[in-house]
Amino acid sequence: MHLPSFTGFSAFKALATSNLLAHSAEQMGTATLMIVAVATLGAGPGSTGAIQALATLPFLLLAIPIGALTDRSSPRAVMVTGELIRLLALVTFAMLLDAGQLTLMLLAILGLIGSTGTVAFTIGAPSVVAAMVARGGLIRANTSIELTRSLAIAAGPALAGAVIGWTGAGLALGIAIGCSMFALMLLIALPAHGHAKRTGSPLEDVVAGTRWTLHHPLLRPIIVTAVVFNTAWFCLQGVFVAYAMGPLGFSPAQVGWTLASYGVGMIAGAAMSRFVFQRLSVGAAICVGPIAGFTAMAIMALSLATAREIAPAMAYFLLGAGPIIWTITTTTLRQSVTPHHMLGRVSAVIVTATAGARPVGAAIGALVATWFGVEWVLLLCLFGMSAQVIVIATSAAARLHDYPDEVDTVPAASHVAGVRS
What is the CATH number of domain 205-415? Predict the structure, then answer.
């Protein structure tokens, strides 16, 4: 079959569409996997937790190698390979389900393989966007990418649940497979943007990229803020259902609608982002996400005393809206200051740090809830969100008036353009 070749603006539209389809496939596949694990294989909380934990491993173990590969080859090729891996995992899932051969161990392995595709897509996409879009259009391009991702995250699980309730898991998997196939076709048709042939070993590349990222005066506070935010965020995530159905007395339906507020917030944040970027400096826009996280956790802590029915939903809405603006602004900053031949490794370092904070936060939340009670977890999360606001608000990134130009040397404070003294 002959695939069209995209160039210019049509290429970006193809990339945005593939982003929507790929994340829809991911969300529908993941939701179907968890529903099958519980409804068909009788998995309990321990088993589902183990499956979800295994699905995070590629973010921790493979992000750095994939980032190095992205910088040594073609980012598009990395994304194509990742989507092909996801497609193979979904097809295998459907075949095993149809044959009645699924086990919890096989589901866990399929979840791990599928998330490998997500890692490749996440790391490759910023490099492809940076190569495809002029510097002045990065903020709009990243907004479009995040909006399509938000739509997939909000709609994918709901669609999977509705389809499974209507006809069973087979059709839901079929839709996910179709989305992944079309995403793969669009990615293959994109123009290739390779890198010049590199000398030295991949390990040297990884060390150089990590050192460059951690020493950059703008990217370093971004990483620290993201780590603290995600630790606090997943500290809450690990205990929220127990808190909602325990002290708050929520029904399962109330819990579901509260969690859905997160997806609604993501869509709203992406839709409002252009308004924010037109009226705030870059540094102020970067601070919007952390401030929203602090405000959300303050509202959640307020539910200990009052507004117990509405406060959690408001908090989850802000936890969706603020981080989307953060992702758009910080991705654009990363693309602006990072030489293109290092963008894969820099993205990988940030993904690894962020992903690594999440299981740590969940474990902290579980331990504090066990020893002191779930109420203390909320106060600890509020403290964490306060800390990440202080980190970013006192950094050079918060003083940016506009996005600085890319520099091709190891960063030093004197090289940072656009920072107000």
Answer: 1.20.1250.20
